[in-house]
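For practice. Any example?
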Amino acid sequence: MPETDLKQQLVERFREVNDDHPMTEADDVYVSAQFVSLEELCVVHGRDADAVRRLMLGQRLPLPGYLRSDGAEMVPADLFALADEAGGVDLLEAWFTARWADPIAGKAEWNSYLSGQYVCLHSVTPATIQRKDYLTTAIGAAANEPDAGSVQWSARLHALVDELDTLEPAFTAYDRLRFGGPTSRDTCIDAMRVRFPRL
């Protein structure tokens, strides 16, 4: 299959998952700072870009996180790291899903991983996915704790918020369009720091 066909198929799959939202100049600048083009990454790792596109289309590696406005497929710099850790692409799904005690949850997270939408983490691994889930849940529940408002409670809350801050990038306006609203950084970091200033 010619490269242009594979690239077009990948664009179409990306838009099926993310809908078709325009990337602004500011989005492009953000994405170029946070991610690398698939072509460039393949050169660095000695991989064939078409072969990687086939793996993405075959649901064996995640889709690009973004399509820059010039058409570049933007991926995380550690795109191949999990497959390498698992012992190869063929072993990746079993290795990944086994990191969850519940097989149904593991499969759901695998499908989310394949979507390429885990742009909410600097490094996407089962451990960081699970930690982010724990932190966002704990931060969301904090206001209902019995000692809410106390100095000790404030310290606990801000420790959670600060840890989440280290895991998550800044996001860009495009993310708020494709996810249909505020990001977890908006709700669990920025809003919480405004609502509950450090004591």
